[in-house]
Amino acid sequence: MIRIGLIGGTFDPFHNGHRKLVEAVLKSGLVDRVILMVAGQQPHKTKLKVSAAGYRYEMAVRGVSDLELVEVSDLEIRRPGRSYTVDTLALLRHELAPEDKIVLVYGSDVLFDLPSWRFPEKILAEADLLIAHRGGISQQDAKAQADRLCQDFNARIQFLDAPMLELSATEVRAAAVRGELDTGKIPERVASLISRHDLYGYDDELAVVEPAIWHQLSDYECQVRPLLNHKRLLHSLNVMRYAMHLAQIHRVSVEKAGIAGLMHDCAKCLEAHTVLHYARLAGDPELLEPALAHGPAGAWLARHQFGIEDPEILQAIHYHTTGNGDMSDLDLLIYVADKVEPARTYNNLEAIREAAETDLVQAMRLCLVEVEAFLERENKPSHPYAQAALMKLGVWVQQTDRTDTKLPEES
Question: 3-state SS string over 344-406?
Fold first, then answer.
């Protein structure tokens, strides 16, 4: 029999309080290994905006990467819709040996919340509880409530006698927004991730986005996640957030910007022959080259696999690699966001980002000029769609015959 300590949380961000809890649980000898369960959409927090699951999962992975006997699970975030503990336990049970024991690890505040959860009797029949004392709740009150749960539900409860580092994720997030990443509060590898991807850079302004939109994006992320490697998923989430930021500035639909940004590379990691097949189905023979085909392929996939019918969203995905001669504001926005999202590092980014805050057309112009300069240095031809976009924007370039190209943003 293996005793598995299950620690769930949003991990937004993963901080040293979470890490200290993991270490204390392992040191206690009451479990043999620990699973960190990254929370999906929580039924009791429907109005709370949390960061995208891909970010939170990556932070948790980095936060415990050097600890043995710890793994991070994406079981909840692989599924769209709300996540209930009773359902998570049932799914996890199928992945474990019949004799394995699940031990749910919580702070003492959960003792008072658990009776209102979905099917608490099933939860407590399936798993033991290991409770860490938290500030604000006396040990006497926690013990009395534990006794009531044992009496009412036949619960099996133990307390974890270990010092806990009390940290507020809200305060840590607020500090991250200010650029104050204190490695005394956040593991160094997590702080590096937050800084590189500017994970909380637009939180204040994006807080006004309707919860229904975030839930929709969360469901789409669940669906697209299996198609992308972790690097491409992080990039797609960055484009989503940056596009939503630009959409608020330029009075473009924030919802459409978020969906197009998240989905723009949905075909990028598929096998080359599959990408080409979907691109042909999209019906655009001008975008069948290996470096470009994932644009139309992604638009086809977004429509036929993910049910996205909005023509503006599909067009933005279709042309995000080249642009075209008749671009909408959403097209401009997605093209620019793809090129200069926070984790990008190539030349002239700051000038483009600065322009994007006030003038999408100028930002697009700068992006296209940079791409054309790269192609010229590499002795590679420009694509006719990109040339049409440049001419529309008042920039003339000499047309050449096309061969296979690989643009800098696709490297």
Answer: CCCCCHHHHHHHHCCCHHHHHHHHHHHHHHHHHHCCCCCCHHHHHHHHHCCCCCCCCCCCCCC
The domain spans of the chain are 3-177, 202-349
Are 83 and 76 spatial neighbours (Cβ–Cβ below 8 Å)? yes
List the chain pLDDT tens, one digit each, 411 residues: 999 999 999 999 999 999 999 999 999 999 999 999 999 877 655 556 789 999 999 999 999 999 999 999 999 999 887 889 999 999 999 999 999 999 999 999 999 999 999 999 999 999 999 999 877 788 899 999 999 999 999 999 999 976 666 677 888 888 877 878 877 889 999 999 999 999 998 988 898 999 899 999 999 999 999 999 999 999 999 999 999 999 999 999 999 999 999 999 999 999 999 999 999 999 999 999 999 999 999 999 999 999 999 999 999 999 999 999 999 999 999 999 999 999 998 778 999 999 999 999 999 999 999 888 888 888 888 899 999 999 998 876 554 444 333 445 444
Topology classification of domain 3-177: Rossmann fold (3.40.50)
**Would 3-177 and 202-349 be classified into the same CATH topology?**
no
Could you tell me which of 338, 337, 371 has the C-alpha nearest to residue 357? 337
Which residue matches tokens 């040191």?
A: 27
CA separation for the pair 149, 115 (Å, rounded)? 8
DSSP state, 409?
G
Which CATH architecture group holds 202-349?
Answer: Orthogonal Bundle (1.10)
> Which among 13, 47, 53 has a CA at the least distance from the CA of 209?
47
Which residues, other chains included, contact 236 with Cβ-Cβ below 8 Å and sequence gap of 6+?
224, 228, 261, 262, 263, 264, 265, 266
